């Protein structure tokens, strides 16, 4: 079952960052992101998650998925905590080389695919229909086609009842083919493969899944009584079972016992 925790008032991290659906790599306070070879850096909108109270760029408050910035040069995002402390992140956005033509991410209905070389495979929950389906993908090339039909991530529908070939064209005109195979899980499959909170429509807060335990940390001040979970599972039937833990009695330290005894004596006096 999921366990939730909250960041303290001094939290001031950027936990995820993306532009045009392309996720960034966060290493310490450095954020790197590479757009397709025909990308433009001058007017871009970033989607991000933060544990802080607000985020600013050059003194301008940043609104997730709304605020425009020029990423021609590194951009410094400053995150402020509720306590007033801050942390700065340097964001570097580059455009892929004109020869690059890779698919870097592929998913359907929130289920991420597995890559082995130029082969992409994906297993949908038991009972899923394979047509029509819409794929979401990231690429370093300028165009992606299936049987000469241009593909738009998150929009174009295809019949995945048979293997499809996705062709990526680089800015120099060269191409790379990817074979995509989508199957349906067996009737006895019952695993949750991905889980996030408040993941619609912006980037959510991803959880870590370890066996049958899902752990997730929310932003400081989040009301945990009204949350929306987005998840992917091998089965179409997911049921929520709430289990309550018996509250543990606070530990009584020696100092606490002495203080209690002293207070009782003072009352008697």
> Structural class of the helices, strands and pairings?
mainly beta
Task: Calculate Rg over CA atoms.
Answer: 24 Å
Order of helices and strands: EEEEEEEEEEEEEEEEEEEEEEEEEEH
- The tally of beta strands, per DSSP, is 26
Shape category:
flat
Strand content: over 45%
Q: Give start-end ranges of low-pLDDT stretches.
A: 244-269
Task: Break the fold down into its secondary structure elements and pairings.
Elements (H helix, E strand, L loop, with lengths): L1 E5 L7 E6 L2 E2 L1 E3 L2 E6 L8 E7 L3 E4 L2 E2 L6 E2 L5 E6 L5 E10 L7 E6 L2 E2 L1 E3 L2 E6 L8 E7 L3 E4 L2 E2 L6 E2 L5 E6 L5 E10 L7 E6 L7 E2 L1 E3 L2 E6 L10 E5 L20 H15 L1
Parallel strand pairs: 1-25, 5-11, 15-21
Antiparallel strand pairs: 2-3, 2-6, 4-5, 6-9, 7-8, 7-10, 10-11, 12-13, 12-16, 14-15, 16-19, 17-18, 17-20, 20-21, 22-23, 22-26, 24-25
Could you please describe the fold and organization of this structure?
The structure is a single chain. The protein is mostly beta strands and 269 residues long. 6% of the residues lie in helices and 46% in strands. It has one helix and 26 strands. The protein has one helix at 254-268, and strands at residues 2-6, 14-19, 22-23, 25-27, 30-35, 44-50, 54-57, 60-61, 68-69, 75-80, 86-95, 103-108, 111-112, 114-116, 119-124, 133-139, 143-146, 149-150, 157-158, 164-169, 175-184, 192-197, 205-206, 208-210, 213-218, 229-233. The strands form six sheets. It has a six-stranded mixed β-sheet, with no helix packed on it. The chain has a six-stranded mixed β-sheet with strand order 14-15-21-20-17-18, with no helix packed on it. The longest helix is centred in the C-terminal third of the chain and has 15 residues, at 254-268. The termini are far apart. Mean pLDDT is 82; it is low at 244-269.
